Amino acid sequence: MGCTHVQAITIDETHAPSPSAPSTPIPSHPQLVQPPQRHPSDQSQTPRPVPVQSLVRDASPTPHTLFQPVVVDHARPIPTPAPTPALDFDSPLGLAFGEGSRRLDHFMDYIHDLGVPRTKVSFYWGELEPEPGRFDFRALDTYLDQLQPQDRALVNLFTNGWCTQQEEIGSRKGAPLYTCPYNAPSCEKTCDQYYQEFVAAVAQRVLERAHGGVAYFQRDTEPASNRHFPATEPQAYVEIQHLFYTAVKAVLPEVQIIGVNHNGNFTREGQPASVDFFDYVLQHMADDYDILDIRLYEEYGTVDERVAWFRDRMARYGYQKPIVTTEYGGPDPRTLHNGSDRLFYQLTQILRRVCGGEHSPNPQCSRQWLQAHRDEVDPKLRPFFGLGSEEENALREEVHCHDITQRTLMALSTGIEATWWWNLRSPGTDPIFGQMRLMDNRFQPLPGYACFQRMTGQLAGMEQVQRMDLGDPSLYVFQIHRREGDPLYVAWHRDPSLDPFDALQAEPVSVHLPIPDRQVELTDVFGQTWNASSQDGWLTLSLSDTPIYIAPMP
Questions:
Q1: Where are the domains of the chain?
Q2: pTM score, whole prediction
Q3: Tell me, what DSSP letter sits at residue 46?
Q4: Cα separation of 18 and 198, whole Å?
Q5: Per CATH, which fold does 117-295 belong to?
Q6: For residues 257 and 279, what is the distance between their CA atoms, to the nearest angstrom?
Q7: If we measure between CA atoms, which residue out of 492, 497, 449, 434 comes closest to residue 467?
Q8: What is the pLDDT of residues 490-535, one digit of tens each?
Q9: What per-residue confidence (pLDDT) applies to 359?
Q10: Summary count for the chain: helices (H), strands (E)
Q11: If both were cysteines, with which of 58, 295, 393, 427 could 388 make a disulfide (CB 3.0 to 4.6 Å apart)?
Q12: Which tops the pLDDT comparison, 79 or 330?
């Protein structure tokens, strides 16, 4: 999860009532309807999946004149059941579990219900081995015991606790090692040895209990970020990686080690934040990782540029690795703007002035100020801070459903080989990452759950994703090659100058798409379907920011 600039605030977890036919005039914006509430008797147990409701936009599919604006119909979407996709063990798609490693029981039921085999959970050395030689693998076992042999699960380990400089640098998410445990002046066994024994013990546990369902190991993600592995210690990061790689491979030689783990933040100069750290890591760590990870938050339109930087830098040092993203998600409030006004950063500056704090303003002061000055917060930002009205929250949910498909296809079109959406479930309190979730902290599905299901169903069997160059950067058209059958197409339109909320309100345009002569079925991300036919190899289609799946009919 990327570096958060504003301390999380508490957001009230509430749900809209079950949908019913409207008997009053239709409001001006779509409404996203929550699935029915469930109240398991044992709150310590993760409730198992039940069918959830999806949302559709009520918009006319009628073709219009090429590149002419189309009248926008802001009628409320009609809720439709989301089809449960077949579990595709070859799918490159997946989801990270979320913050922490609590309430893991049965959560794989939801991962599989979403049609994907990939997930990821993070654990801390200081919790799995709270003191030298005493292991507590209960949380790890809860994870491993759910896996099937064909799952593609990931275990991430943070280097923290009694053998690390955690307290000195203020990070639980990765720290350099002491020479001796507890920073003692001398010892019979060094922290390097303890660390390798710990990693080997975790790998052995995986071998014994995961049924072959763990495909990846990873450590100390998002180094060089605030409260993560320090940017001043690239050599220590590389040295620990060698210990980690050697220990895992000795027990699980077929498991792939994911490394580098950049948080995805780039500067205006087109370089990763903490570029010197990552230049050193890429130069000196090539033999100690198998796959490169980069997080893909913020603007999805810059995904290809960020991925290209890492490919170019690996090439500079004479090698290439496959690339994955073990965290990506949106919408990201850091991308919201009104013209040149960057809304999130302006609010962050206000909170820092009022509440103090170099990296994160005082959380209690921030909550009080936001609640007292709600009307001064831009409506686009309010849902991310628990301040949104019903309509504002509904718009954010609609943008979220768009982003799931948009960001995923942008990532896959760069050649990224696997993705883990952030995240399955969350309390929703973090203003940047909390609202990317598909479920709340009680495992109640949110509208994005159905949108993700619909995406995995539509993309089932995909082998390659290519963005088609139509000479207009505002047209996002992708061709998805599948293991069987003809290609699937996905298309939407967004003016590059607009943020996702303004794009939601923009007028659609009519375009000609190079789709072969045939009848096609069109399905938007909310589940509305209609048929159309191409003529002379061109399909005339009204496009907005809502992605549309275009599938050949039998």
A1: 117-295
A2: 0.87
A3: P
A4: 49
A5: TIM Barrel (3.20.20)
A6: 19
A7: 492
A8: 999 999 999 999 999 999 999 999 998 789 999 999 999 999 999 9
A9: 65
A10: 13, 20
A11: 393
A12: 330
